[in-house]
Amino acid sequence: MSDVETLPQATPARPTLPPPMGLLAELTHRCSLRCPYCSNPIELDRRSQELSTAEWKRLIDEAAALGVLHIYFSGGEPMLRRDIAELVAHARHAGLYTNMITSGVGFQPAVLDAVAEAGLDHIQLSVQAIDAKTCDRVAGYEGAAERKHAVAAAIARLGLRLTVNAVIHRENVHEIPAFVELAEAWGAARIEIAHVQYYGWGLVNRARLMPTRRQVETAMLQVEEARNRTAGRLVIDSVLPDYYARYPKACMGGWGARLMNVTPSGRALPCHAAETIAGLAFDNVRDASLSEIWYRGAAFNAFRGTDWMKEPCRSCARKEQDFGGCRCQAMALAGDPAATDPACSLSPLHDKLVALAEAEAASERSDFIYRGYQGV
Amino acid sequence: MNADATQIDSAAIVPALPRGVRLRFDESRQQWFLLGPERVFEPDEIALEILKRVDGARSVEAIAQELATAFEADRDEIAGDIMAFLRGLADQRMVDL
Prior knowledge:
The structure holds 2 protein chains of 2 kinds.
Chain A: H1 2-6, E1 22-26, H2 53-66, E2 70-74, H3 84-93, E3 97-102, H4 109-117, E4 122-127, H5 132-139, H6 144-158, E5 161-168, H7 176-185, E6 190-195, H8 200-204, H9 206-209, H10 213-230, E7 235-239, E8 259-262, E9 268-269, H11 290-296, H12 298-301, H13 319-322, H14 327-334, H15 350-361
Parallel strand pairs in A: 1-2, 1-8, 2-3, 3-4, 4-5, 5-6, 6-7
Antiparallel strand pairs in A: 8-9
Helix pairs in contact in A: 2-3, 3-4, 4-6
Chain B: H1 3-12, E1 22-26, E2 31-36, E3 39-41, H2 45-51, H3 60-71, H4 75-91
Antiparallel strand pairs in B: 1-2, 2-3
C-alpha cells in the first residue's frame, strides 16, 4: 500500500478527525500593556473590526456543538470588551469550561466581579516580573505591578481558580523561585512558567529577550525543585525555550489537531502565529461555520498528519510525537513552513540557530520594541 | 496499608470537586470528561463511578461501600483503590481531599 500513502489526498476532509478540544477566543487586540513578546500579530486588529456580541455568541454555540470543551477568552485584554461577562455566561450555559487570560490592567474592578458572577471557571493572570520596576518596564506601563497585586487580591476574595502566567526571558529568568512563591502567596492552584516563544513581537525582540544556555539550565533545575517543594499544592506547568533543545516542541499538539484560534476580526487560525506563514488562506467565521473551517478549511488541512513532511521529518521515528516542531518557526527561520523546525537538532539549520541564540543572549541589548498599533 | 488504617482514613476523608473543576458529559463524543485548568481527564468506567459520587458530602468509606455493593467487591480493597485514584487527582488539584 506504500504507493497509496504517497499519493496526495483526493479531498482534504477527514471524516474521522476528532473535534477540537479548545477554542482560543481573542476578543480584542486592545490592551493597556505593550509587552515586547506579545503573541498578537505585528498587524493588530482595530476595535472597529471586532466581532459583535451576537457574532461571538453564535460562535460559542457552534464551538459547543462541534465538541469544544475549553474556551479561552483572551486578547489583548478581554475585560476591555463591555460584553465579557455576557459572553462568559453564554459559554457556561453552552456547557463550555470557561478560562480567561488577563493582564489585570485597564478595566474597572466591577468587571471582574461580573465575570465571576457569570460563572467563570478559571482565570489566568500574567505577571511580567517580580521586581516591580522590571514588571512595569517589560509591560511598558507604569503601575502595572501594583495593579496586578490588587487584582490578585480581588481574585482571591471572589474565590476564583487562579493560574499565574509568567513569561520568562533574560530579564526575569533569575526570578523563577520568586514567581513560584508569589503564586503560593496569591493562593494560585497553578503557575505557568513559559519561556518566550519567538514569533511576531518576540522574534522582533529576540536579541533583547534570549537567555543564555546556562540561565535556561538553571531555570529548568529551579522548576524541578519548586515542583518537589510544592507537590500537591501547586501545579507547575512549564514551556521550555526550544532554541537550546534537542528536539522541537509538539507545537499545538499537532497542526489542526486540538485547538482553534479566532482573532478579534474573525479569522480562524490553527495557531495564533499561523498568519506569518505566507501562502495560507484563512477562513473568516463571518463567512463559514466553525465546523466547516475545522474539517474542510484549507489552512487547517495544510499541515495535518504527516503527508506534508520532508526529510529528515518524513523518516523520523519521532514524527508522530513532535510533528516536526512548529510550522511558524520553520517559516520564520528556514523560510519554508514544511521544513523541519530548526529548533530540532536534526535540522541542518540547528547549529546556526544555537550560535545565533548564544550571540544574542550575550548582546545585553535592552531597547525593547514595544507592541503597539504602529507596528515595527 | 492495613485494612484498619484504610477504614479510619476513608471514613474521615470527604472528597470534593473544587471550584474550577467540572465533571460533564460531552454529547459530540458520547464521553464523560473531568475538566480543570489546562486539564482534560477522560475517566474510565470505574473512575467515572467514583467521580459521580465525589460531592463534598460522601466520605471515601461511603463511596467504597456503595461501589462494593454495586460491583460485589471487597469494600476495604476498593477504599484503597479509591484513595490512590483520588490522591493522583489531588496532586493535580483536580480533587480536594
